[in-house]
Structure formats: C-alpha cells, structure tokens
Amino acid sequence: MENTFFMISIAVLLIGMLCISVGGAIFKFRAFTNKQAWNGRTKPFLYTGIILFIIGLVLVYVTYPFQ
C-alpha cells in the first residue's frame, strides 16, 4: 500500500514537469510567431505545473520507502 502512494506521488511530480514543459513550449512558440508570449495558455500551464511539481516533490519526500 505504501508503494502505491509513492507511485502516485511520482506521477504527480511528472505531470507537474509536463505542464511546466508545455507552458515553456507555448511561450517559445508565441514568441517565435511574434505574439505576446505571456498571453494565451502560457501562465495557466506554468502555474498549474509549479503547484503540481511542489506537491509531488513533497509527496515523494513524505512517501519515499526507506529501507
């Protein structure tokens, strides 16, 4: 059971990293197409990714299976 929580925390951490990466890609694409880079879906992806990343990091720290 403890190992399941650890895997869930790893998944949350990876989803946070994915959201941050998508936000960065959107930022670069909008800058490349000469649009305002911070408009659109850039900020929501970055904010969601940072929050999920921090939550996932804390969960990994708490649920790490020490042996």
3D structure, described in words:
There is one protein chain. The chain has helices at 2-32, 42-63. Helix 1 packs antiparallel against helix 2 (42-63). The mean pLDDT is 92. With 67 residues, it is mainly alpha-helical. It starts with a helix and ends with a helix.
SS class: mainly alpha
Spans of at least 5 consecutive residues whose pLDDT stays below 50 are none
What order do the SSEs take from the amino end to the carboxyl end, as H and E?
HH
By DSSP, the count of extended strands is 0
Give the topology, please.
Blueprint: H1 2-32, H2 42-63
Q: What's this model, at a glance?
A:
The protein is built from two helices and no strands. The protein is mainly α and 67 residues long.
State the main characteristics.
67 residues; mainly alpha; 2 helices; rod-shaped
